[in-house]
Amino acid sequence: MPVNDPVGDMLTRLRNASRARHDKVVIPHSKLKVEIVKVLKDEGYIGDFTIHELAPQSEISVQLKYGPDRSPAITGIHRVSKPGLRRYVAVREIPQVLGGMGISILSTSRGILVDTEARKQKVGGELLCKVY
């Protein structure tokens, strides 16, 4: 069955696997998803990821990260801009998530950036999701 919102599907898979305390989750591959996963890894929300080149559809295998008491590193992950209603923000309108304790991921003209990096580079864009 085709998925109308591939990024939303990826975020839902991450959220569900994290809540179910799985060690890893497998996501269908796309360049945008790889960039989002790189940002999540750089910010410390996931452990590591590998790309598996398979015949019909490549996959991304993501290792989830947990605290010492097995509490998930990703407490919440929400899609903001959806295919039916895109959300674009200027650099001054980029929201802070939980007073700076979480991150916003943006698709900008300079690539996929986290909110702090977008503010440094003074660039706005499409607000993809919020992670905390």
From TrEMBL:
<keyword id="KW-0689">Ribosomal protein</keyword>
<dbReference type="GO" id="GO:0003735">
    <property type="term" value="F:structural constituent of ribosome"/>
</dbReference>
<keyword id="KW-0687">Ribonucleoprotein</keyword>
<dbReference type="GO" id="GO:0006412">
    <property type="term" value="P:translation"/>
</dbReference>
<keyword id="KW-0694">RNA-binding</keyword>
<protein>
    <recommendedName>
        <fullName>Small ribosomal subunit protein uS8</fullName>
    </recommendedName>
</protein>
<dbReference type="GO" id="GO:1990904">
    <property type="term" value="C:ribonucleoprotein complex"/>
</dbReference>
<dbReference type="GO" id="GO:0005840">
    <property type="term" value="C:ribosome"/>
</dbReference>
<dbReference type="InterPro" id="IPR000630">
    <property type="entry name" value="Ribosomal_uS8"/>
</dbReference>
<dbReference type="InterPro" id="IPR035987">
    <property type="entry name" value="Ribosomal_uS8_sf"/>
</dbReference>
<comment type="function">
    <text>One of the primary rRNA binding proteins, it binds directly to 16S rRNA central domain where it helps coordinate assembly of the platform of the 30S subunit.</text>
</comment>
<dbReference type="InterPro" id="IPR047863">
    <property type="entry name" value="Ribosomal_uS8_CS"/>
</dbReference>
<dbReference type="GO" id="GO:0019843">
    <property type="term" value="F:rRNA binding"/>
</dbReference>
<keyword id="KW-0699">rRNA-binding</keyword>
<comment type="similarity">
    <text>Belongs to the universal ribosomal protein uS8 family.</text>
</comment>
<comment type="subunit">
    <text>Part of the 30S ribosomal subunit. Contacts proteins S5 and S12.</text>
</comment>
<dbReference type="Pfam" id="PF00410">
    <property type="entry name" value="Ribosomal_S8"/>
</dbReference>
<dbReference type="GO" id="GO:0005737">
    <property type="term" value="C:cytoplasm"/>
</dbReference>
